[in-house]
Each structure stands twice: as C-alpha cells, then as structure tokens.
Fold these 3 entries.
Entry 1:
Amino acid sequence: MTTLRQNEDKTPHIIHGIEGLKRELSEKPLICLTGMRPTGKLHLGHYVGALRSWIEMEKIPNMRNYFLIADYQALGDYLDDPEKIRQSVVDIVIDWLSVGLDPKKSCFIVQSYVPEFAELAFYLNMFATYTEVMRNPTLKDEIAKIEKRETNNTLSMWFINYPISQVADILLPRGDIVPVWEDQVPHIELARKIIDRVNKKTGAHFPLPRALISETPRLVGIDGKDKMSKSLGNAIMISDSLAEIQKKVQKMYTDPHKTSIDAPGNTENHVVFMYLDIFHEDKNLIENLKVRYRAWGSDSIWDGEVKKLLVTTLDAFISPIREKRAYYEAHPQLIKAIIDEGAERFRSEAQEVLLELKSKMKILNYGG
Ligand code: TRP
C-alpha cells in the first residue's frame, strides 16, 4: 500500500482506471478529450482497452467528453492512401455508435473539420523545444519503425510534428483528462510541459492534462503472441460476422501440449480462456471449466468445447453491435449529420480558446 502511494505521488499526472477517476471527482466539471487515428475498423482490443471506459465516462454526470477522429494525424502516415482514411472516418463513427457511444452526450469531432486544431498546433510549435520533442520515446520508436520499412519509409515533417499537434487536440477543448494507452503517456507529459510553458510565458491559465490509463492490460491477439492489431492479422473486429468469429476462434492459440482429451492441460496463456475471462459473465463457470481443462480423465474437456463456448459468447456480444452497424451503414446521411454537427458545435468553443491564446500572446488587434 505504501509503495503504491509513493508511486502515485511520483506520477500525479497519471490516473489509474475509471475507479481512480471516480475517486477524484468533485463538483467541478471535468473535460475529457481522447481520440483515435482513422486507419481501419475497430477490434475487440479497442473495445476492452478504450471504448468500454469511454462508455463509462459518458455515464459520469460531471464529465464533458470529446472524442476525436484524428484524420490530420493519420495523414502523417497515410498521405498516399486518402481513401483508406475517408472510409475509416465513417467506419469509426459507425463503430462508436454501434457500441453505444452517444453523440448527444459526447461531442464526436473529426479533426480536419475544425481547422482551429491546425492553427493552435502552429502556435504551440513556438513553445515546444526541438530536444524535448525528439527525446519523446514513443515518437523515437515510431520513427525507427518507419525508417525500417521497405517502402513508404520517408518521414514527413508533419509526422515528427504530430506529438505537438496532439497537444493542440487536448488544449483546444481545455482537456483535463486524456484516456490513453500507456504508450501515449510521454505525449501527455509533453503536453503538460508545453502548456505549462504557455501559461508561464503568457500568463494564461490553461489546464494541465492528466492521462487516464486503463487498468486492464492490452488484449492479446488470437495468436497469443502480440497485442491485438489489425495489421498483424490477429484481430477480431467488433463488426465480424459469425463465420469470421468461428474461423478466428478456431485458429486461437491454446495449450499445444494438451494433445488428447485426457492429457492434463495448461490454462495459462490460453487465449480462449483469456477471452472467456473477459467476455463471459459467469466467472464461476469459467473457473470450473479451467479446472476440468487442467484435469485428466473422464471429467476433462478439450479445446473444442471451450472454443464453442467462446464463439457463442463473442457472437452474443458482437451481434447487437453488428445489427446497429447494419442500420447505420444503411443510413449514411445520419453519419454525415453527426460529423457536421459535432464540428459545428465544437468550433465556436474552439475559437474562444484560440482568441484567448492570441490575446495573451498579444498578436491581436495591431494598431488598435
Ligand atoms: N495518437 C492517438 C492514437 O494513436 C490518437 C490521438 C490523436 C489522441 N489525438 C489525440 C489520443 C489526443 C489522445 C489525445 O491512438
């Protein structure tokens, strides 16, 4: 307990899980900004690590939530494939709606519809230093990965600039809380440094954001090796059909040493059981199945049985999402309206923040 406290004190800018956030709530409304790059449909890893807690955030009365689709940011890597981004923006809005996020309660924002993001990023560049950006470990990793590619391996200035643009994403709605994956924490630290510098240099009082980190580790892919990711081909999408779910569960990594029904099995690192732990509501039933899987003899069970249960469990979870998705796919004008309204609603607030900064920077009203 003491060590936990100490750790928490060293990282006051990190909040652990929704429960951690709830402990900190007070009368004062908090603003949450988070986002995704539109580079494909969403998968179960997005659900477990992000969407699930966003849905919880929507239920907290004092939270104002802004969910950003960062198409400017995605262009840093997909400039040559704009069709992919166009399609993904729509897919993400549909995925968000289908899991139950509500654009009446939260503001869905497509980044490029709010050019104030670009203008704010431009000013923030003046306050950021070259060394602190280039020292950012997440950016360094990403740069190294891009340079190692066979093709599409040139680094644009825009790509290098994205951590600063992300500070603008957070500052524009005056974000206090930023739910992110752990690898994004250096970006939040950078945001705090830059915003603090803006405050000190100009006398502004913009809030220093804090990261909200998921308590659950990243969902492993069906291969059991890496975190779930569409590009690694180990993902189950929240839009997958029953046939796709069946095919993917069939391929899941289990215990390679359980070669017959009466051989003792290992339930550690067993992907089917990992997913059942997350998606099946009856924890006792799953514990019981694990005991039988580990046992040998007449009461033992084999992969086939647990896989069948996982298919039904995942299909029960995904099918209502799939149904809503079909509805929205058939009504593209609804999606278009949500995108337009979100931007329109947000732009007036965004202009206020920009005016405040420009006034503090004294770049308004020359000669006046
Ligand atoms: N970089 C984030 C990701 O890849 C997406 C993102 C863009 C974001 N702008 C943001 C996240 C602002 C949090 C805050 O997932």
Note: The CA atoms of residues 101 and 350 lie 22 Å apart.
Entry 2:
Amino acid sequence: MSSISYVNGRYVPHRDASVHIEDRGFQFADAVYEVIAVQHGRLVDGDGHFDRLDRSLGELSIPEPMSRAALKLVIRELLRQNRITFGALYIQVSRGQAPRDFSFPQNVQPTLVMTTKRLKPFDFERTAQGVSVITIQDIRWKRCDIKTVSLLAGAMGKTEAMSKGAFEAWQVDADGNVTEGTSSNAWIVTKAGELVTRHTDSAILGGITRQTVLQLAAKDGLNYVERPFSVAEAKAATEAFTTSTTAFIRPVVKIDEQSVGEGKPGPFVLKLLKLYGQHIENHK
Ligand code: PDD
C-alpha cells in the first residue's frame, strides 16, 4: 500500500492507519468495499463503482459515510498525496464501532477507510498472456451480489489456485455451473461463436468490468448471452477469460490442466481486450 491512507476524516501515514478492535468490520465482516482501477490518474468506470458501493451499503442498511461529491474530493486528494497515476484505489466502509452484539446497532457512524496501491499501467501485451484456472466448489453464502469484506471463501480458493500454479479458481455451484472466480467474473466463447457469462443474481457479484465488457461487445456487434454455463461446457469452449478491475480481461487457456480451444488466447478475447484498452484511453 502507498504511504498515506485515509481513515475517518484524516490522511494518515499507512503504518499508523488503524480502526478500533470493536469495529464491526473486524468483528462481523459487517462492511463493504470497492476496488477501482486508476489509469492516467483517473478512475476507470468510477461511477459504476460508486453506484455499486451505494447498492451494497443500501442492501445492508449502512448509511453512506459521505456524499459522492465529497468522496470524489477525498479520493482526488489521496491519489495526489500518494502520487498515483496508475494503480488501484480501495474503499472500505464498515457499519462502524459498537459494543459486540449480533443485531445492527443504531446511530453509529460508519467507518471509512481508503488506501491506494501503485500498479503498472494497462499493457495489452502483458494482459493478453494466457492464464490457467482450476475449478472448486462454491462454498460462499447466498448474497454474493453484495460486495462485502467477508472474503474468506475467496481467499481459500485463491490460495488453492496459487498452490496449483493457477491464476484463479472458478467456483462451481451445486448444479455444476460456474458462478464466478474468487475475485473475477467468468466467461466463455462457445463453438457456435457465442460469448457467454453468467447472468447476475445473488449468486455472483455484478462486476463493473463485466458490465463494461458487455457494453463494448454490444457496441461492436458481438453476439453475447447472459446464462449459466457448466464446467463441461467451459472445457469444450473455444475460448475462456476472466474479468476484474485489477486483472482487466485475462485469457484463460487452461481449465483444470485441460487446454481451452487451441490452448492460446483466441480472437474474441483479444478483440475485447483491444476494445477495453481503447475504453481506458478514451477516459483519459
Ligand atoms: N474483485 N467477482 C468477485 C467475487 C470479485 O471479488 C470481483 C472483484 C469481481 C469482478 O468485479 P469488478 O470487475 O467490479 O472488479 C467478480 C476485486 C478486484 C478485488 O476484490 O480485488
């Protein structure tokens, strides 16, 4: 993390940044978050992320810690203080600090924490490198549409993926369908040339990158459908890829050690990646 963090109204050195042990984020994972990419000093799809943050807060009846306009000013100042031109911004909002009790406390000031991270600029060649994924059982709760900090299942899954040399783990529901990655959305291209990603409901997080990719596909006249797809269908697909704020669009060339299509990034994903690169450049 970069050297200055924002905690409840103050810009503080990262090493001194802390919240109370009775913060409900710590005690109950009673908190939501957002991760927003920064490219050329600007937030990528900022409004989409702010809308999702509002939705997550609303679903849990956590009051907004400040207005969107104020939040944007604080973010601009934090990026300036940390000199972030390319990187990521993390926003965490918990219900706040209160004596431990399961039920939601009333009249509590939410905790707002923001941190930044410097990352390399978006680079087509680097992002276009294929990665592998494993499949794991989806053991998460039934409100995955809320972006909460309750990330233990995802952390376990990602750790398993890393231990097997894979980039990501695709989670699979009781019907054998892929829900999403531990921190990304999952996509395939079928032999019929159809772009498929799971529809949004409470089983997955509605990714902002996912939304942008759908818009870019529509604009370019690419054929897509939002529906469940099985592991078997994914393994028989001609292409596969994942999308997320920090990984952008990553071609998936292997699923559980089995090559997808020709085992290298295909035309569909490379086209979308090119469009995504233009999307970033257009928002400079
Ligand atoms: N993760 N699904 C899950 C479970 C996620 O955690 C994420 C994002 C996504 C993709 O959403 P988006 O395109 O809005 O980033 C899908 C972020 C990057 C993270 O936790 O670091």
Note: The radius of gyration is 19 Å.
Entry 3:
Amino acid sequence: MIKLHDLYFKPFISEQEIDTAVQNMSDAIAKDLGDEMPVFIGILNGSFMLVSDFVKKYPKPCEVTFIKLASYEGVKSTEDIQRLIGLTQDLSGRTVVILEDIIDSGNTLEEVHRIFENENVKQLLIATLFYKPEAYNKDFKLHYVGMEIPNKFIVGYGLDYDGLGRDLPEVYQLKTTQHMTNLVLFGPPGAGKGTQANFLKEKYDLVHISTGDVFRYNIKNETALGILAKSFMDKGQLVPDQVTIDMLNKEVERNTGANGFIFDGFPRTYAQAEALDKLMDDKDSQINAMVALEVDDEVLVKRLLERGKTSGRADDADESIIRNRIKEYYTKTAILKDYYAKQNKYYGVNGVGNIEDITVRLSAVIDKL
Ligand code: IMP
Ligand code: MG
C-alpha cells in the first residue's frame, strides 16, 4: 500500500503485466502498419513512460512527438481540456498513432480528434494502454487497447494524483476504504478488555464488534444468519466459521464510514484469523494490530474472585474454574499471537495498574500504527 498526499493506493498492475500489454500493442500495431512509417504522438504528461517503453519495443523505424493536454483535477476528470502544447509539425498524408496512457471519459480523446480535424492525415489511429469502458461516453473508435480496467482511479506508470505517482513503475489503484485502524483486542478473562474497548472506541471513534454481542443480536432478531447459527447450536455443533464471518461482514458493512473496528472475541483460530484478513482485504482494508492485555495469572485470579463476590457469575466464584479459563485462553491464543507476530502486528500491553494508565499504554501503541 502507498500513500500519495491524503489518499491510499494498493498495488494493482505489476511491471510485468504492463510490459506484456505494451509489447502486445506494439506487435499488433507493427503488424497492421507493415512498411508504413507512423508518427507516434504521445499525450503529455501521462503518456511519457508508455511512449518511451513503446517505441523501444516497436520493431520498425518511426517518428515520435508529443502534444500536451490537461484535463484532470485531483481524482476527477473535467470537461474542460486545456491545450498546452499543440502540433508543431505538418502531418498531412501521414499515418498518425495516438499513444494514450489512459482513456477514461473520452473528453481528452474528443479534443485530440478536434486537433486533427483539419490536418489531412492519412489515418488517425488511437492506442491506449489503459481503458475504462464504464467511464467512456464517446463514440470514437479505440483501435488498440492494452488493458481494460474498472472505473477506479489509478496512479503510476506516468499517471499521477495531483502531481505524485508518475514515477512508479507499476500501477496502483485508489483504495475505496481509506485508512482505517482495525484492532483485534485480546486479553485473558479479567484483563479488563471490555473496559478498555469502551475507552478506545470513544477515543479513536472505532466501532466495537464483540462476536458474542453480534451472535446474540442475530439470534434474538432471528436474522437469516442468526437462524442458521442457532440450527448448529441446537444440534450441539460449533457454528461454522463462514457463518460467523458473514455476520461480522454485515457488521462491517453497516459501518462503512467508520474510522476502524475493534474485534473482540474473534478470531479464535488460525483459520478465523485468515478469514478475517480476507474479509478486511475484500473491503480494501486490513487488520493493523492484535493488541493483547497482559496480566499475571495471580492478579487475574484475584480480580475475578473479587468480581465474583458482586457479579454473581458462577464461573467467577471458583478458583479452579478461573485458573482453567485462564489456561484455556493461553492455549487457544498462543497460535494467534504467532499469527500476528509473524506479520509484526502483535502488541502486548501491560494490563496491570489503574484503568487510566492502561488506556495510556494502549493509546501509545495505537498512535504509532
Ligand atoms: P479522459 O479525458 O476522461 O478520457 O481522461 C484522460 C486523461 O485523464 C488521462 O490522459 C489522464 O491524464 C487522466 N486520467 C484519467 N483516468 C485517470 C486515472 O485513473 N488516474 C490518473 N489519471 C487519469
Ligand atoms: Mg493523459
């Protein structure tokens, strides 16, 4: 992922794929033109990289020149095309091939046709490396297209976002979800996860997704997924990961404008961690960190026994049950700690001390992400 000015872009088309597309275009044009010596005209600025690579691959003699037009402002095409440098030579009777980096709305191409209206060229051929069919709203024929791409803003290989990105040898696509901070929050029973999640969600404007709450909500409201989940539970079976993931997906989609999410109670297995990564990737986003509250067993036991005195929760009253729950937590999460540590995303935070101090420690981790 890269950041240009205020926006994030993800890798989209590799150098190798671009090279192949340019080669194919060059081969096709050379084959069609035979011994006709073409004048290739690049449309500046965007096409400089394409033209350079293209003419090096072109197997026969040719001429090369440029015209300079400008249309884009930021990430939006504008109707108003400025002619900054026009034709500087007589092209009558010549075969002209326009080399465009990208054709989007077709406004620039319309201006190109206007420029050639009275030039009496033998033929005017249009070649573009990238083409966005969903955005194109003109009727001009495109004779050669390197690659059709979806209607999303791209940068690299000559294309810029407000001046940046032209130098990149590969192409990046604008992320539809801009930068989010997504955390997986972990902690043994009694670590204070719930309390801290509440502070973090306020402070960073994150959406707290507790898998337990999501399950209860879906079952109580008898959503399709809730009914499905319950059918497994009624048979005493584990709810398949995919059902849980689908529920989480719905939660994420309900909060598309969020700054990020705190996942609580999920993932619990390696497969779930992978599924969560995939879910975030599909949303053009990612898990940034697994934050685990680290609290010594003896402190946990003391805290939970204390809580048991007032909460009335039976599993908070018995020391050996408490110790078992803590042990189970470490057995189950060790593999997840590895999973995120391998991606340099594991952050252990000392969870002993007063609540504010712990929040400060957690914030220090999140602020650095
Ligand atoms: P059109 O006039 O809308 O067809 O757009 C053509 C020009 O807009 C191109 O020559 C580029 O300069 C610019 N452009 C179109 N789409 C993109 C994009 O996705 N990224 C960067 N520039 C673009
Ligand atoms: Mg251009």
Note: The pocket of inosinic acid (ligand 1) is lined by residues 43, 46, 71-72, 77, 100-109, 153-155, 159 (CB under 6 Å).
